[in-house]
User: Fold this.
Amino acid sequence: GDSVTQTEGPVTLSEGTSLTVNCSYETKQYPTLFWYVQYPGEGPQLLFKVPKANEKGSSRGFEATYNKEATSFHLQKASVQESDSAVYYCALSDHNNNRIFFGDGTQLVVKP
Amino acid sequence: EAAVTQSPRSKVAVTGGKVTLSCHQTNNHDYMYWYRQDTGHGLRLIHYSYVADSTEKGDIPDGYKASRPSQENFSLILELASLSQTAVYFCASSVAGANYAEQFFGPGTRLTVL
Assistant:
């Protein structure tokens, strides 16, 4: 079945340092890949999505490349800020029934 | 203005009691979903629906029922609440038929069963 595995958190960084959250997926189809972000007390919201292999998505300084050969979609940011503290979810779509499969989430804590 | 709203935002229930969580969307989306969130388990799908008066089981449906009386409304029902159902519950909606459709989430309901 479809599944997503991502870096186990929490990940604690200092402001200005770089971030990588690893995401690997398993599926027999050609999914759309997503990164969602969840701030404290809120529901998850879309950070960005990439529907095609070998393309890059980006938003708010975060980026990830859809690597079909490696089945990966790692999230990166060059310089994190305290306001980036949140839980980040990697996810893939199942086109057959409009479902999205989420990873377990990675909590990011950025210290000033 | 919020497109997906949930009520109540928090609730304390007693073991064995009945709990109903409500979700309303103004996105005009066909699909609606109920997830539960537990620390270390991310988001797990309980039930979903793609049309009014019809619901489908997700990955963890045991102990939960769902009701979709209209396109805009989707309820999650715990007939006999148990301690293990203490969690945060999220409702979401999405369009149908698009292979890149994102889901739009509500703010969540924190349920505590005592």
User: Anything to note?
Assistant: The radius of gyration of chain A is 13 Å. Chain A has a mean pLDDT of 94. Chain A touches chain B at residues 32, 34, 41-46, 49, 51, 89, 93, 95, 97-100, 102-105 (CB under 8 Å). Residues 10 and 19 of chain A are 12 Å apart (CA to CA).
